[in-house]
Design a protein that fits this description.
501 residues; alpha+beta; Beta-Lactamase; five-stranded antiparallel sheet
Length: 501
């Protein structure tokens, strides 16, 4: 059916002719001709057929040019409007990413804008979680909560996972019933897409000199109007993905830096708290001289020491080493430290104190498959004795005024290593004011130098004995200085304690 778009109403509705020719209307003969091939416009000229035909042939080229110019103007206006929307969207995304908002908030705003401009009812941004091997949704529009589950990057049924692995655009055209590029059948769409048009674009990020890598995926589906996503949509979404890629990587680096800073603060706090558990020399109230240093291999460790006044001129001193180092050893160390105070106060001998300690911690040591070596001794000024019990901790020595060294062997296996009964004591004479007690952990003596040899017990004891007449803090400082020169980065916690009564 032909309808008038210009000129007067002819008062009749002619059928669409198959070819140019004369038609008879209510007012007589008219000539109908198509303005241009493939065009929906027909020209009607009234009058005698030959004259009308000649007039139509003269007017038709001019009219065709006018219509073509109008059509080009309309297309240009539509394209300009589309480009304006795209440019405005890219500019808006730049502004959003430049604000001081969290990535999730920015991604959510971007997702709504993208879905609106391109015309998709549902959209999502998924980010690669490298540690978990997943694509996690950080922003979505138009999706039910149940559809926003994380996807494994090796999921063969997920469009997003495939786009991530292959690092290329994947789109489904429901009108043609094909998936582009390179896939056969609509089933490749997998979960959530069914037969709706979808467009999935990899989010790429690369730095100068390095190959770009995929850091996420943008998904659009359910094209408004049921149309397929156009090449222009793909081009725009790819530009947006590249823009988001740098933001995602920057956000990941910022988040990682914040996590590392938080972890450092937590480790520093744990380090400070652990060292605060160790008593200062002032707790002995002048009944003995003591100096000690504990240096964990990591922020926290499993070495510990404690000392206390027991009354009647007696002083108790304990030093231990939980197997391993780091947080696991530090947790056991804290348990040992708290239990030790109770058993030291209640026990009648060092052996009883360590036996009670084992009974309190046996289940914990067994469940964690850990053990510890520990020395506990009582120096008695009036009796002139050192009574000690050592559970697998042969790292102790008595250094006499003349420099003679007597090692203090263990009296029992380490706590938690094997089942055992009461831990025995050992007693030896002690010359108050002359003898020096040295206790340490194997982190010092087992430390390896550049040549691969261990620092060794002989080096340590020689360093302590050589300075035995100096103030005790100086002995500890100089001993650690020599050990540090030998092994700059020891792999285990290191502790040294010297005491004189």
């Amino acid at each position: 059916m032909l309808r008038p778009v210009a000129g007067g109403d002819p008062g009749w509705t002619p059928p669409v002719p198959l070819a140019d020719g004369a038609w008879t209307g209510p007012d007589g003969s008219v000539w109908l001709c198509r303005v241009s091939a493939g065009d929906a416009f027909w020209l009607e000229v009234g009058g005698e057929p030959d004259g009308a035909r000649r007039a139509a042939e003269a007017v038709r080229p001019v009219l065709a040019l006018v219509l073509d110019a109008e059509r080009q103007r309309t297309l240009a206006a539509e394209e300009l409007a589309g480009r304006y929307e795209e440019i405005d969207l890219l500019y808006a995304i730049s502004e959003i990413l430049g604000r001081t908002v969290r990535l999730e908030e920015a991604a959510q705003i971007i997702m709504r804008e993208v879905a609106s401009v391109i015309g998709a009812r549902r959209a999502s941004i998924m980010v690669h979680d490298e540690a978990a091997g997943l694509l996690r949704t950080v922003a979505a529009s138009g999706w039910a909560a149940a559809a926003l589950q994380s996807v494994r990057v090796d999921d063969e049924f997920s469009v997003a996972a495939r786009v991530f692995r292959e690092r290329r655009v994947l789109a489904y055209d429901p009108e043609r019933d094909v998936v582009h590029p390179g896939a056969v059948g609509r089933g490749i769409g997998g979960r959530g897409y069914n037969t709706l048009a979808f467009l999935s674009v990899p989010i790429m990020y690369g730095t100068s000199g390095n190959a770009p890598r995929c850091v996420g995926v943008i998904n659009l589906t359910d094209r408004i109007g049921g149309d397929r996503f156009t090449p222009g949509d793909r081009k725009l979404l790819t530009a947006i993905a590249n823009q988001i890629g740098a933001a995602l990587e920057n956000a990941r680096l910022v988040q990682r830096d914040r996590q590392q800073q938080r972890l450092r603060r937590e480790l520093e706090l744990a380090h400070d708290l652990q060292l605060k558990l160790l008593p200062p020399p002032s707790v002995l109230g002048g009944e003995a001289e003591v100096a000690a240093r504990c240096r964990p291999a990591e922020s926290v460790g499993g070495d510990f020491y404690t000392f206390s006044r027991l009354g009647h001129g007696r002083v108790g001193v304990m030093l231990g080493d939980v197997a391993s180092h780091g947080f696991s050893a530090a947790l056991i160390m804290a348990l040992v430290f708290s239990a030790a105070a109770m058993h030291v106060a209640a026990a009648s001998s060092p052996g009883d104190a360590l036996t009670g300690l084992l009974e309190s911690l046996g289940d914990e040591l067994e469940s964690t498959e850990m053990h510890l070596t520990v020395f506990y001794g009582v120096l008695d000024r009036e009796a002139g004795t050192l009574t000690y019990a050592s559970a697998g901790h042969p790292y102790g020595a008595r250094i006499a005024r003349d420099g003679a060294i007597e090692r203090l062997p263990a009296t029992a296996p380490p706590l938690g290593l094997v089942g055992q009964g009461r831990i025995p004591d050992r007693r030896l004479p002690w010359r108050a004011g002359d003898d020096l007690l040295a206790l340490w952990t194997d982190g010092i003596t087992d430390a390896r130098g550049r040549a691969g040899d261990a620092y060794g017990t002989e080096r340590l004891l020689e360093a302590v004995a050589r300075r035995r007449a100096e103030p005790l803090p100086a002995i500890v400082d100089l001993a650690f200085a020599e050990a540090d020169l030998f092994a700059e980065a020891p792999a285990d916690d290191r502790t040294l304690l010297v005491m004189r009564i």
